[in-house]
Amino acid sequence: SYIEEKTVLGADGTKEKEKIKKEGIGFKIGYTFDVSDTEGEELPTLTKPLEDSPEILNTVINQIMEKSKVPIAYDDSLMDGTAYGYYHLVEKRIGIKPDLSTTHTCKTIIHELSHSMLHSLDNEKIPHNDMEIQAESVAYITLNYFGFDTSSYSFNYIAGYSEGKDTKELQESLSIIEKTSRKLIDWLLEVTVLSEIKQ
User: Fold this and answer.
1) For the chain, how long is the longest CA-to-CA vector?
2) Which of 77, 143, 78, 82 is closest to 111 using CA atoms?
3) DSSP-derived secondary structure letter, 60
């Protein structure tokens, strides 16, 4: 509630101020600060970028970008932000931060490909946290199958989005995660040099 002053005419024709109590929901002007305007130690993050850059993944990344039905491109607009990639639901394309290690680039591409396979504008009933758990789990399983360990990033990422969920909720995603991982593994075996690793 708040008090609003209103000018009214009195009985003798003079202007008087009348206070009226009003109830309702509204917004006030407030001030926010960009993180660059603050001082002090860096805030801790749950995840840290993967730093490994195996040479073979450069070839794999190029082959994925060439063969993917969903367009994938590096997006310079991600350089100043904290996101490593995105799947654009309307334009059906993937953007990737350009300055990542080859392992993190490959993992991010697979994460976003998982979103493209599993999550669309029609899936609004799936909570955002569940979408992220599914996509990161698929990325971890897929790369782990080929011998690339992303657990130092993926486990913390998944844990952050799993907070407050019970086992039943997480188990419901397992079948989706398994099927999607299998599809991506089979596709990668078909279109990339990763097939040489699994011979």
Assistant:
1) 99
2) 143
3) H
